């Protein structure tokens, strides 16, 4: 097809603009993750809605294995990418449903973008993974025991130790299992799967800015199951996989794009075995429905606070405005539910959740609720439940309170928490049933601080005494920050660590010049400030 003179000028200008582009230094500094601003390569007509655009072939700043696109938060586009090595063949065009979903390409140097819609900016976001040395089939299939988990590849096996989470995991409850697809290429080998999982994890953490990989588990088309978000496969870890429902669900994502294709039988069987173990582990059935509160969000189908009725095994689109997990999986969910039901085995379970996990002294009463259920169907009414507390990992568990389950096996109690640590519920066992330990909940207690400066107004050259108290428990050291006010802002003068002895600390500060100074004490998650003026 002949190209008009104007179109030729646009393409030439775009190519020249791309040649001048440089990767984002902020992301390039992070091993494995980098980005490239392509806004200058957008044609003028890119602001017209409904128009189809094909950008020139572009060279990435360096070799990559995974690519995603960011058109900005308000853009409404349908975008596709393809990639190849220098001298190699092009991959198929792969659709990118939104900026949170990247596409696995394998090792590539060149890429091309086409899209339909209006866009004022464009940013390509890359991850370089390389080869993960973990062999396929690394999770050994031990002899199956009723109620035991299927073989699951640990985070270490796919390189998760190279991408540590930004902060500690959050714990919720598991009432629903959401099924997803990663919308990445389907023509991968079994030995590629660990690298794909690592690439997705890097993308979610480095480019999306999330704490960790969003999914709790990932399953490939060969039936390999991978541990996703850190915190423990048997824990109720809050992920980033179903906006508005993460605190009440677990999420398993299938590697590949199943918008049209069906998930191969090995992959479907692995998902069924995983959910047949995971849901009963948390004391919930694998079939039927449950009502959960929506916590809202821009991609949620329901307003915050809405009571949403979901299948125990649901597709991502049941709760959020998305096409995930693709028609190829969504149309087979009834088959998946039936297979999961056939595989599931009732388990004795003890669940517990807290109304919050961050407390501030003296308001340290924690509201706990949960339920006890026996696999043999025996009534749990009147069964004893102990609430125990552990101050640090490896320390002995201490008893806070003993209560009994109601006729439905439920319990609720408020317990004062002595310090930061972990809380758990325990059924001590009886003549028929073995003891059961609920998954512990990590709780932080911010201490109460006092801070006194004497004097608070002094002549230049004199020192003020800084006295502080921390209670009822205290860290070994506290952090002091001293700043000087200049205009409307405070600028750092000094930062120091101060030893805390028996809950108290003392130090001095001599202002280096006249002016107003702000002294800030931080310890154990609490902060207090005082002012001093030198004249």
**What proportion of the residues form beta strands (DSSP E)?**
35-45%
Shape call: flat
N- and C-termini, Cα separation? 80 Å
Structural class: mainly beta
- CA-based gyration radius: 28 Å
Task: Write a structural description.
With 535 residues, this protein is mainly beta. 12% of the residues lie in helices and 38% in strands. It has 6 helices and 31 strands. The protein has helices spanning 5-19, 25-28, 193-207, 265-281, 327-330, 333-343; strands spanning 33-37, 52-54, 58-70, 76-84, 94-96, 103-118, 123-127, 176-181, 217-219, 225-227, 249-254, 289-293, 307-311, 313-315, 349-354, 358-360, 365-373, 384-390, 398-404, 410-416, 421-427, 436-437, 441-446, 448-454, 457-458, 464-471, 477-486, 489-499, 504-509, 515-523, 526-534. The strands form 7 sheets. Strands 1, 2, 3, 4, 5, 6 and 7 form a 7-stranded antiparallel sheet that branches. Helix 4 crosses helix 6 (333-343). The chain is flat, with a radius of gyration of 28 Å.
């Amino acid at each position: 097809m002949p190209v008009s003179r104007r179109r030729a000028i646009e393409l030439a200008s775009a190519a020249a603009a791309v040649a001048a582009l440089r990767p984002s230094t902020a992301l390039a500094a992070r091993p494995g993750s980098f980005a490239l601003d392509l806004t200058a390569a957008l044609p003028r007509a890119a602001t017209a809605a409904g128009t189809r655009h094909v950008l020139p072939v572009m060279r990435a700043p360096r070799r990559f294995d995974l690519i995603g696109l960011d058109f900005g938060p308000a853009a409404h586009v349908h975008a596709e990418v393809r990639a190849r090595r220098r001298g190699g063949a092009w991959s198929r065009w792969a659709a990118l449903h939104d900026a949170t979903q990247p596409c696995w390409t394998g090792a590539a140097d060149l890429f091309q973008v086409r899209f339909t819609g209006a866009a004022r900016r464009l940013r390509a976001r890359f991850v370089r993974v390389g080869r993960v040395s973990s062999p396929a089939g690394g999770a050994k299939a031990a002899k199956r025991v009723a109620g035991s988990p299927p073989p699951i590849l640990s985070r270490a096996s796919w390189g998760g130790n190279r991408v540590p989470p930004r902060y500690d995991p959050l714990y919720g409850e598991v009432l629903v299992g959401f099924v997803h697809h990663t919308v990445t290429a389907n023509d991968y080998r079994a030995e590629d799967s660990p690298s794909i999982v690592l690439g997705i994890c890097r993308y979610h953490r480095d480019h999306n800015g999330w704490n960790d990989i969003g999914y709790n588990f990932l399953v490939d088309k060969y039936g390999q199951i991978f541990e996703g978000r850190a915190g423990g496969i048997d824990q109720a870890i809050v992920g980033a996989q179903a906006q508005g429902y993460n605190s009440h669900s677990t999420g398993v994502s299938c590697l590949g794009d199943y918008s049209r294709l069906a998930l191969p039988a090995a992959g479907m069987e692995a998902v069924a075995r995983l959910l047949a173990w995971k849901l009963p582990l948390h004391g919930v059935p694998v079939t039927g429905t449950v009502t959960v509160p929506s916590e809202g969000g821009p991609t949620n189908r329901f307003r915050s606070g809405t009571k949403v009725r979901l299948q125990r095994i649901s597709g991502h689109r049941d709760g959020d405005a998305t096409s995930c997990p693709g028609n190829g999986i969504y149309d087979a969910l009834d088959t998946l539910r039936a297979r999961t039901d056939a595989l599931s085995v009732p388990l004795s379970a003890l669940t517990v959740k807290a109304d919050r996990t961050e407390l501030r002294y003296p308001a340290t009463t924690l509201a706990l609720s949960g339920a006890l259920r026996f696999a043999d169907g025996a009534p749990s009414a009147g069964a004893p439940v102990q609430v125990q507390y552990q101050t640090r990992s490896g320390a002995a568990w201490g008893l806070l309170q003993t209560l009994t389950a109601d006729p439905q096996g439920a319990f609720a109690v408020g317990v004062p928490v002595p310090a930061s640590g972990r809380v758990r519920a325990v059924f001590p066992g009886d003549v028929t049933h073995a003891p059961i330990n609920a998954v512990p909940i990590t709780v932080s207690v911010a201490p109460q601080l006092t801070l006194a400066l004497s004097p608070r107004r002094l002549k230049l050259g004199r020192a003020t005494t800084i006295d502080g108290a921390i209670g009822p428990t205290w860290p070994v050291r506290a952090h002091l920050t001293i700043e000087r006010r200049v205009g409307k802002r405070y600028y750092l003068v000094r930062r120091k660590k101060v030893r805390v002895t028996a809950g108290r600390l003392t130090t001095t500060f001599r202002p280096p010049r006249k002016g107003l100074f702000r002294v800030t004490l931080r310890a154990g998650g609490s902060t207090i400030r005082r002012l001093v003026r030198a004249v």
